[in-house]
Amino acid sequence: MDDQTRMMTGLTGLGGLAQADVGDPDSVRKQQSLGQPQQDIGDILQQIMAITDESLDEAQARKHALNCHRMKPALFSVLCEIKEKTVLSIRGVQEEDPPDPQIMRLDNMLLAEGVSGPEKGGGSAAAAAAAAAAGGSPTDSSIEHSDYRAKLAQIRQIYHSELEKYEQACSEFTNHVMNLLREQSRTRPISPKEIERMVAIIHRKFSSIQMQLKQSTCEAVMILRSRFLDARRKRRNFNKQATEVLNEYFYSHLSNPYPSEEAKEELAKKCGITVSQVSNWFGNKRIRYKKNIGKFQEEANLYAVKTAVDAANVSAQASQANSPATPNSGTTCSSFVIHREGSAAVNYVFDF
DNA sequence: AACAATGATTCTCG
DNA sequence: CGAGAATCATTGTT
Questions:
Q1: Is the CB of A283 under 7 A from strand B?
Q2: Contact status, residue A18 vs residue A194, Cβ threshold 8 Å
Q3: Which one, out of A43, A123, A239, A340, has a CA that is 20 to 30 A from the CA of A215?
Q4: CA–C1' distance A222–B12 (Å)?
Q5: What is the pLDDT of residues A202-211, one digit of tens each?
Q6: DSSP structure string for A207-249
Q7: Is the CB of A258 under 7 A from strand C?
Q8: What confidence tens digit (pLDDT) does each residue in A205-251 have?
Q9: Which nucleotide is nearest to A233 (CA to C1')?
Q10: Which UniProt keywords apply (predicted)?
Q11: Measured from the CB, is A23 under 7 Å from any atom of strand C?
């Protein structure tokens, strides 16, 4: 609202010029030299000055009265004359502002973040995700990005609606001022250039408000980004079933616990996690298992038995003669057992 | 609160 | 680019 008040002062500044013109004793002398009664002119000037203090209706009536006043054309021409002289001093003040580097910076950033620029509907959400992933594989990370995208969309929506509001307010205000100036130009001389200048001033003021909007939008995006990046570190432990599936695979492939890309995808689907999460899990598991086999012995045996039982069940269902004591996933399972027994806590390396 | 477990990240290396 | 290793940061347990 600070800008608005400043805008108003800018506006009254123009009006003030006219008042100064009117108050110029020079003009009074000129009027006197025309042979008109001084009192009369003084009255008119008083009336003009007082217009702003009156209610709209009164002012309207008074304005109409002034416009019909017999002295009006003469007064107007005098005002024009004075204006001619003073306008030279005003001209120097005009300076064309080059495109603000800061606002360009903000614009670029908003564009880069996808806040401004082409509206991204639901259809191109994948494109937005891909852009946000920036090099990551599009299959994963889309889940993590959905929250981010939703928040970004929220910011974008607020930004656009605010921008629209500002633009509307700006054009409304410009129209209002232009109408006002046109109306006033009947009473006092206002060149089109001046109106132009006034419009430029208004636009400058509004664009400074716009810059504030852009700035705070940028800040919001930055905050969102940092929160999001922090949030990526946040994690939820996988549910029991998922851990079970992963462990089952790990211990039944202990001699070569490196799932292929297809296996990873299948595990990911089974566990309801992403492929990269599966990769993370196996990476962590391998290194932690290797570091301290002893700690995992119990778990390993558990899953060895589990897979053995499963295998036995499968074979039983298949009406085969295998006893539960001779699991058919033997190669990997037994290799683990042998290794365990042979080198309890010493460095264990996977059989590659 | 201290500690362990665990998922994610970052770095180096082949 | 993927694996290993170290590390971070959160979650779960005691």
A1: yes
A2: no
A3: A123
A4: 31
A5: 998 998 888 9
A6: HHHHHHHHHHHHHHHHHHHHHHHHHHH---PPPHHHHHHHHHH
A7: yes
A8: 998 888 988 888 887 777 776 666 665 567 889 999 999 999 999 99
A9: B8
A10: Activator, Developmental protein, Differentiation, DNA-binding, Homeobox, Nucleus, Transcription, Transcription regulation
A11: no
